[in-house]
Design goal:
Elements (H helix, E strand, L loop, with lengths): L19 H11 L5 E2 L14 H10 L13 H13 L10 E5 H13 L5 E6 L3 H9 L3 E8 L5 E2 L1 H6 L5 E7 L11 H14 L2 E5 L23 E7 L11 E8 L5 H13 L5 H12 L4 H5 L4 H14 L4 E2 L8 E2 L2 E2 L9 H12 L1 E2 L1 E2 L11 E4 L4 H21 L4
Parallel strand pairs: 1-13, 3-4, 3-6, 6-7, 7-8
Antiparallel strand pairs: 2-9, 4-5, 8-9, 10-12, 11-15, 14-15
Helix pairs in contact: 1-12, 2-9, 3-9, 4-5, 4-8, 11-13
Length: 409
Amino acid sequence: MRPIQKSQKLADVCYDIRGPVLEKAKQMEDEGHKIIKLNIGNLAVFNFDPPDEIVQDMIRNMHGAAGYTDSKGMFAPRKAIMHYTQQKHIHGVTIEDVYIGNGASELIVMGMNALLNSGDEVLVPAPDYPLWTAAVSLSGGKPVHYVCDESADWMPDIDDIKKKITPNTKAIVVINPNNPTGALYPVEVLQQIVDVAREHQLIVFADEIYDKTLYDGEVHTSIASLADDVLFLTLNGLSKNYRSCGYRAGWMVVSGEKRHAKDYIEGLNMLASMRLCANAPGQFAIQTALGGYQSIDDLVGPGGRLLKQRDLAHKLLTEIPGVSCVKPKAALYMFPKLDPEIYPIKDDQEFIHELLTEQRVLLVQGTGFNWIKPDHFRVVFLPNTDDLTEAFGRISLFLESYRKRHGTY
């Protein structure tokens, strides 16, 4: 019989956060090995629980969650999201501008599906959260990666953005706070991106899923608050700030220059209707989450667990010879660099595979985030301090062995 092959649309699609190395880790676990997983921001498995009031509200409302909802979402959570955009100083948002999805991930794909024709280009940061690159490719578009500058605390390189704009460029993706680097963009940088978008009539897709996971008193600015004459699609959700990844409750807000986007918005409405609705139980959590006590502040503030783990992870990483890392101001990740003179890595996926095999620590290679060289990896600092200390001890041993094997110690 003829082999059944996957669609050619998947040829340039990858998601190495759950890729081949994870499959190896699962195999090792089946064989009885204990793996320390620093590969994914799944908070629940590290005992970060959602706020009790969210859980209780979902339980109380479960009897009303059996039917389809409005294709854009229930009225009450959409109104709560609308009010949240007002707190973020995003102007002119109505309830009809709010779409609730099965996590922000579904809405990222929906936003690209509704926009792109074959050959259309979207500017995506490098490094990026790889779903953005995959969503562009899967929608028939071409992802074009602009560089974020590690020497400038991972800020977007505005000159590189300008160089990569062509007549086919339709949009730019801004991930702020950034995954995987933990960077937080100041108003000045965001304004420059808005200016470029205005000049070239680009849509701005703003991924702000970590907008409350901020350290050292930092403040997040929504890029959509900086202009009314550019079209913005801002994405957020409960997964990270409210430790509710499995509830799949995300949202997308359309704002700014909507008058000339009626056809595109009609496409968004069509796709929202085709998937019928987002899951109802997760929608019941949104109003309570946004209006309730913001327990994330306790985790990231002085003495908070996430702050302590960030500081410990950064200290242990940067004590290893040949490893440097910009200290993250936000989110749950670090994106350290391995000095190529000391670690002459040619294939970073194989490098991560060797680390897993020898020391039973699971990371994700930098090229999995569309970084341009095999000299970075992403670390999740969600495990408790004892597990982090154990993990980085193992990483240090592996890197010491690597230096000796390559004569660079």
